[in-house]
Amino acid sequence: MKPKNKRWESIQAILVAVLAALILRQFVIAAYKIPTSSMEDTLLVGDFLLVNKFYYGAQTPNWIGIPFTRIGFNVPWFRFPRIEAPHQDDIVVFRYPRDPHLEYIKRCIATGGQSVELINKQVYVDGKEFVNPPHLKYLDPTIYPRYNRYYPTFKPGLGSRDNFGPVTVPPHHYFMMGDNRDRSSDSREWGFVPPENIVGKFIYSRLPGVPQDPLGPAGNGNPVSIMQSAGLYIHIPFCERKCGYCDFYSITSLQRRDDFVTALLHEIELLARQHGDLHFDTVFFGGGTPTTLSISQLESIWNHLHKHFSIAADGEFSMEANPGTIDSEKLLALRRMGINRLSMGVQSFDSRDLKFLGRIHTVDDVLENYESARKAGFENINLDLMTAFP
After folding, report:
1. Which residue is catalytic, options 37, 53, 106, 201?
2. How far apart are CA 245 and CA 30, in angstroms?
3. Average of per-residue pLDDT values in the chain
4. What does the pLDDT look like over 130-149, one tens digit per residue?
5. How far is CA 95 from each of CA 31, 49, 285, 299, rounded to the nearest angstrom?
6. How far apart (Å, rounded) are the C-alpha atoms in residues 257 and 234?
7. What's the average model confidence in pLDDT over 20-39?
8. What are phi and psi of 178, to 5 degrees?
9. Confidence label for 216 from pLDDT (cuts 50, 70 and 90)
């Protein structure tokens, strides 16, 4: 009997420890790992955060189900008394308003009753310039005008990423933004955070290789997105000429592009019915040669993706391009559309190699297109090169 008693005591001790850990995480403190770059340069991907859950009022579970799935059901919940409500500049963990299964962490820019406006990227609260965090970051030198239609706002007519509002925060709600302002999916895109979505307050982070002052001189931290994300690849199978060495599926029947785009839009709608809950932080247009499509065709695909899926504002959006199929006008249109990474199929800077490979461009085309891409605002450009020709 003694061995059985010892085993039972061990099992009891493990169960008590697990229960204590669950209670601690639910009501007192929880750890998070940062998966995205929306907080750079204050925090980096992979940093760990500790979040105080009782400061804003701990909450009982509002959903019961199988962990790491969406199989479950909502249950009545209760919030304990709080020490105080979130303040402007607090770093707050909250449930994503469009999908409460996901948790974000952002900087609180404004609270109920305050007005928010962006003028040429600068944030104003109640008409006064918002003090920028010490490690605030802007990646895109482009300043989008107020009515730029490529950046989705949570309500029509509110403006763009860089010129937004003014908008008044409803009572007891919060306006959240990321420090990596040009790469942050935040209240500009999906609206205000209601009080019932508040989870906890940022209190500590481990920052390998980053400035060790995440709060800054005024208690400022950096908001980031805590969520499960996916990547999306879209294959555009058209080329002006089929290269003999290429094994990727492509065709040269360019007259079929309209039919293809129509079918692709329909496919997006069908997939959204099954996987509409996915959030994409990377989108890659490959081929083939995606830039054989017209800008209007590419825009229709891009807008359809935003209509049917959640696309991060702070994601990486890549477009493969052959130098013979792009010019300064198309590059500028791609950048304004939201593409922020260009992958150019250069293959060689030797004219003899290009002729041998059957490429449609010249070395001068490459240099001209690269310069045009920089002028259009592309900061992330990669050049595909080949070696060891037979």
Report:
1. 106
2. 53
3. 83
4. 998 888 888 888 888 887 76
5. 15, 16, 31, 31
6. 14
7. 69
8. -95, 155
9. very low
Rg of the chain over Cα atoms, rounded to whole angstroms, equals 25
Dihedral sign, CA of 111, 115, 118, 119? negative
- Location of structure tokens 């249109």: 333
Q: 293 versus 30: which is more confidently predicted? A: 293
Instruction: Please say if 10 is a catalytic residue.
Output: no
Tokens (6 digits) for 184? 């942050």
Count how many Cα atoms sit within 13 Å of the Cα of residue 346 in the half-sphere of its side chain.
20
Q: Could you tell me which of 295, 289, 288, 377 has the C-alpha nearest to residue 340? A: 377
- Taking the C-alpha atoms of residue 233 and residue 251, their distance in angstroms, rounded to an integer, is 18
**27-31 CB contacts, 8 Å cutoff, 24+ apart:** 27/53, 27/54, 27/58, 27/80, 28/52, 28/53, 28/54, 28/58, 29/53, 29/203, 30/200
Q: Rounded to whole angstroms, how far apart are CA atoms 132 and 42? A: 12
Model confidence pTM above 0.70: no
The Cα 298–Cα 293 span in angstroms is: 6
Indicate the burial class of 242 (C-beta count within 10 angstroms; 0-12, 13-18, 19 or more): exposed
Indicate if 38 belongs to the active site.
yes
Residue 228 scores a pLDDT above 60: no
Strand partners, 125: 116, 128
Catalytic residue among 37, 38, 310, 343: 38
Spatial separation of the C-alpha atoms in residues 90 and 310, rounded to whole Å: 26
Structure tokens that stand for 306 in this block:
């935003």
